[in-house]
């Protein structure tokens, strides 16, 4: 009885589909060929209702999905989404993402974003990338998980802006590209570029103002660094939630700097990506520090990542974030050296250090850090006390 009632309701919906197509044809708002196509979609839906037979192809899937949603046929809608999911690739991920957002299909949208994360360069090189709308572009640029150099991402965004100017029938000028990008421009993480990448691309693009170009060049070259309105958080497949561990149980005053690096060795029990350190700041109130941070493979004596940067502190005993430009992969049981070379006044320092620190996450297994003192001149930093209290990472 219930099945019959459902079929009756859905049959009325499909009949409405037929009548709408016929009305549009008579109003000359639908070409004969388009009318035939619409009728074929209605027939497909009707056949599905009475036989569960599904005949979906690349040419009909989006129209079928639209019809299934509009006329309340959720089972057929699910078949369409399943078809799209099975045919999802890097070269069509942006096109399908746009459709998933349009049709409010969050599961499909999430799969599209995962594909874009894993194959970002292939995805942005596809034709469908320049066809997306501004909201979809911003949704992608906000992600920490894109696997691409920021300079190449910027080049793709410029291509999108040129296409958008043409869609809006605007001359393709620097000003119009800046106009159509709007807030998307602020989502480009210029601080993640090298100074060479910035000089060869964004600095000459005409999209940034002269003041922004100067401030970013100063950000790359001087300390203390001027404030820039761009995110400096690394990308490159940072999945899950940011984590941090602190190896000290107490904070004391007066740790000096004379050009010697503070160093501490460590191992972890699982693969992680380190994105930065938390460092102690001045005991004399608000101060700016210059700092070079590094991760070194201890056995190979190879620098895996480094950043010449700076940070501002407020005079408290808190730690202050200093980030690498890109995540640094850390492998289990391999010994690494965390290194920080600070230039500035005396700072706070940590005491009552722990040799082993375990980070527990409700959604992931435990991450265990084991610390070892670094031989040689390390400015006094050891397991027991010193600098580099925090390691910031993703699992």
From TrEMBL:
UniProt superkingdom: Eukaryota
Pfam families in the record: BACK, BTB, PHR
One GO BP annotation of this record: neurogenesis
Alphabetical keyword list: Cytoplasm
Record localization: Cytoplasm
Keyword Cytoplasm included in the entry's annotation: yes
Domain called BACK: residue spans: 93-201
Main location: cytoplasm
Cellular component terms (Gene Ontology): cytosol; P-body
Gene3D superfamilies documented for this protein: 1.25.40.420, PHR domain, Potassium Channel Kv1.1, Chain A
InterPro entries: BACK, BTB/POZ_dom, PHR, PHR_sf, SKP1/BTB/POZ_sf
Full protein name: BTB (POZ) domain containing 1, transcript variant X1
